[in-house]
Amino acid sequence: MSKALWLEKTDDGHKSRIGQISETDLPEGDVTVEVAYSTLNYKDALAICGKAPIVRSWPMVPGIDFAGTVKESRNDEWQPGDKVVLNGWGTGETRLGGMASLARVPGDWLVRLPDAYSLEDAMAIGTAGYTAMLAVMRLEEHGLKPEAGPVLVTGAMGGVGSVAILLLAARGFEVWALTGRPEEEEHLKSLGAAGVVPRDELSGKQKPLLKERWAGGVDAVGSHVLANLLASTRYNGTVAACGLAAGMDLPVTVAPFILRGITLAGVDSVYVPPLRRRAAWHRLGQELPPHRLHAISRTIGLDAVEDAAAELLAGKVKGRLVVEIGD
Fold this sequence. Notes:
Blueprint: E1 2-10, E2 13-21, E3 31-39, H1 42-49, E4 65-73, E5 83-87, E6 102-105, E7 111-112, H2 119-141, E8 151-153, H3 159-170, E9 175-179, H4 185-191, E10 193-198, H5 200-203, E11 214-219, H6 223-231, E12 233-241, H7 255-259, E13 263-266, H8 274-287, H9 290-293, E14 297-301, H10 305-313, E15 320-324
Parallel strand pairs: 8-9, 8-11, 9-10, 11-12, 12-13, 14-15
Antiparallel strand pairs: 1-2, 3-4, 3-6, 3-15, 4-5, 5-7
Helix pairs in contact: 1-10, 2-3, 2-8
């Protein structure tokens, strides 16, 4: 028997509890993993706090990602002792997730831990950081280069935003950080941001077009913020969208697209094909040194997850929350 955080459906919602998990609880799959770390992502917080219908099967172990060691394998690619990472694929939503000592998944879903990282490092990156790399790759695929001009990262204090700033600054971009927490300006500059843009500047009612300012951006917020970012993006610019912290709506006109040739590039992290997700993790291992992760992450235990989830949704969390599973 091993430890897990369980979400259980009740008549008036759901409750969470720390309990046991055994191999008989695990879903089908050809690889069983001893999980060392998971993370608390925005989607996990929504599920744990019951703020959105994330969980589709009950009872559920939350955690849309994990890092651990292969215990048993019927997949030729993996052997006991291999260090692996998983992001997405419905874990924590339709099948038991990463906040447990054991997980069982199809081997094709796993990525080998980059040599540069420990298991804890990998979850300091987690799904948020992996998504940030996918967003950077989308910008590059649309030809965005540092010489094109400044780029804006929204939701800059969150996991996606923090890693996006690190990655873009390391590649020579002039990166600006949009945040509602101006007191964190020095922290954001330490990650590589050239400066801070107050969130209010882009959160108001949108106009079809605004003054051209940004060559591109990474948006983890959605709604009016994304609409105003698109309206202020320069001719032929690209914005990669990967989040909805402010809402799923997009109150935008066609003006940025047909008058300035703007590209809105969507970024999915859940069902990315294996080759692309492995490429993203390989690049993370090459471009994001472990020591840079210390400034954007802290580690908590399973017993602290519920309170931390409420803080995350309230916008009180800085960077990444690593969850140590423990024995």
